[in-house]
Design goal:
The protein has 131 residues and is an alpha+beta fold. 18% of the residues lie in helices and 50% in strands. The protein has a single domain, classed as Immunoglobulin-like (Sandwich), CATH 2.60.40.
């Protein structure tokens, strides 16, 4: 009987860790609170698109190893923020800069914003214009 209890007690932490990891790896825990492109959603040719993004968790205290990447597939342009820990009380905006070259056509584009954390990801798209 003692051997059975010992084995169960030894395996309990592993079970708890796997449940916590599964809960934190859900995209539902990633909340993108704010996305902005500066003063307007219009970027001039030869300038940079500066995406400012605030990320917080929904159901967990913190999102560890959070990464933000912003892509503009039509322009083959992308940028990334350094990894960080997103907490519930975080008011910090992370800035991701993407160069918009001078030979880019004036048109409407979509920025694909991807937030990765603890094995999960959330994707949103935001329009902007190049003039």
């Amino acid at each position: 009987m003692n051997l059975k209890k010992s084995v169960m007690l030894a395996l309990l932490p592993l079970f708890v860790l796997s449940v916590v990891a599964a809960a934190s790896a859900s995209a539902d825990n990633i909340r993108i609170e704010q996305i902005g492109f500066g003063y307007s959603d219009v970027v001039e040719q030869g300038a940079s698109l500066n995406a400012r993004i605030r990320v917080t968790p929904y159901d967990v205290a913190a999102l560890k190893d959070t990464r933000i990447r912003v892509y503009v597939p039509e322009l083959n342009a992308y940028g990334a923020a350094r990894p960080f820990e997103a907490t519930r009380n975080s008011n910090e905006l992370r800035t991701v800069t993407i160069p918009i070259y001078e030979d880019v056509a004036s048109a409407d584009y979509y920025a694909r914003i991807v937030v990765y954390s603890d094995g999960a990801k959330r994707v949103v798209h935001r329009p902007f214009s190049v003039q």
